[in-house]
Amino acid sequence: MGRTSHITPPELGSNKTAEDTVSIDVDESSIICVRLREDVYDILSLKEDTSEDGSLSFHLSRQSATDVPESLLDRFLVKEAPEHLRAADTRQVHLVVSTRSGTGLALDFYHSVLQPLLGEFGLSAAASGGDDGKSSSLLHLVTTQDAQSIQDFAANLTPGVEHTLVLLSGDGGIVESLNGKATVDDDDDDNTGGPGEPSRPRRSLPLIAMLPLGTGNALFNSLHKDVYAVYSGNSSAGSAAAAPSPLVLGLRTLLRGRRAPLPSFRVDFSPGSQQISYRGATDAAIAAVEEQLRPVTHLYGAIVASYGFHAQLVWESDTPEYRKHGAKRFGMVAAELLKESHAYDARVDRNIIPLSSVQQQPIERQRHAYVLATLVSNLERTFTISPASRPLDGRLRLVHFGPVGGERTMEIMTRAYDDGKHVGMTWTTVAADGGEGGKQEGVGYEQVGEVRVETREEDARWRKVCIDGAIVELPPGGSMTVRTESVPHLDILVDLSVVAAAAASI
Ligand SMILES: Nc1ncnc2c1ncn2[C@@H]1O[C@H](COP(=O)(O)OP(=O)(O)OP(=O)(O)O)[C@@H](O)[C@H]1O
Predict the structure, then answer these.
(1) Would you say the ipTM is above 0.95?
(2) pTM score, whole prediction
């Protein structure tokens, strides 16, 4: 149970009615916002219930009171719908429901929580096939039909108006929006004014608001890391109060958040690289799923580009066979991979900042277990792969280590779950690790400007790379090169404290 607030009854003799004079205990951790309706406050909160069979359900709860402590009003009062949610002739607001994200709860969340919450602010949404309604005050409801839906949607946003995309999804919704939008930017010379024309005003970028309904929700969890830290007592303003759930935080940010550019990177692949997806992947027809390979030259990401154990885990746990096992699939696949402990044969070059902004240096290791470049701190809420990464810092960091065997790999991963304590780990190699014995090694952790991974594997199984969850198979001798983008393609809505902290660190 979180910190509770006693909502005090009005004083005797006031003109409030008896119905108003209620005293309520509110679990602060579940509060989304407080609304003032005439002279009564409505406290809107999110109830999340887990049934006996483990399924999760949500509903929006409203409690009314005539008086609310200042401290709650400071943090939760929302007088009117924020501008980014108000559709107008100059702004379209899209509610994008990704039906396959996480455990498939996004549509239920929309109907049970988001739709009534927006209704409290006088906002309503309608699905539309064409342009009808898009330029009115109605919000636009988009429900995914397949794995291309979000990317296609983001690539076809009406030009000349502002866009807000409220994504009810996991990281996939963000990376698909990014790739849809960035592809349009690639074709649009005017977008940024170009390197030689810095004075041209930047066009308003589509604004992404995240409601974390995926599995890992790496970007959401990384951007809200400091907000969680306040509740765990892990910050200067530490307190022992219960933390709000990710969905409560997402809704608070939706109503009170601020816009900031989303840092991203581009990954270029050598010719012959192919992106893997599954066609016909419905839950009922999992056995009928076909693996599809399509040529890919480059992708954009905002989270992670990896080779080795991480990419293998994401890919092998996403096959139809393993998907049958639900969330347990990650653990099952990790156990198998750790038993095999494959030593990936690759050349990895990077330029370490601040040592060199241009010169590439190879990692002096023939074989690798883990090579992961990231812009974020956390791949899951408690899995801190890059502890030095700050929200929105735009710095690419590389985590890498050699083939150290299943047991040590497990130990490294376990320490990452302990607030990123894998960084700084060292050990002495033994010949059985797949390299020379007696060498001092450790977890490599560097800020880099660019990373290039060239695989020397013959077997296609070991030639998979992962870009924010998308899997690409490199050809024999193929490579990927990761570079940060110098201009943003999207803005993202974040907690006010994140914008303030990012500005202070410049
Ligand atoms: N109706 C649909 N049919 C097929 N694929 C879909 C459909 N709706 C969404 N998808 C796809 O499902 C994937 C869901 O990925 P998403 O990242 O949102 O969730 P997740 O993988 O559970 O979470 P995370 O990436 O945060 O761990 C996306 O690639 C999306 O394109």
Answers:
(1) yes
(2) 0.89
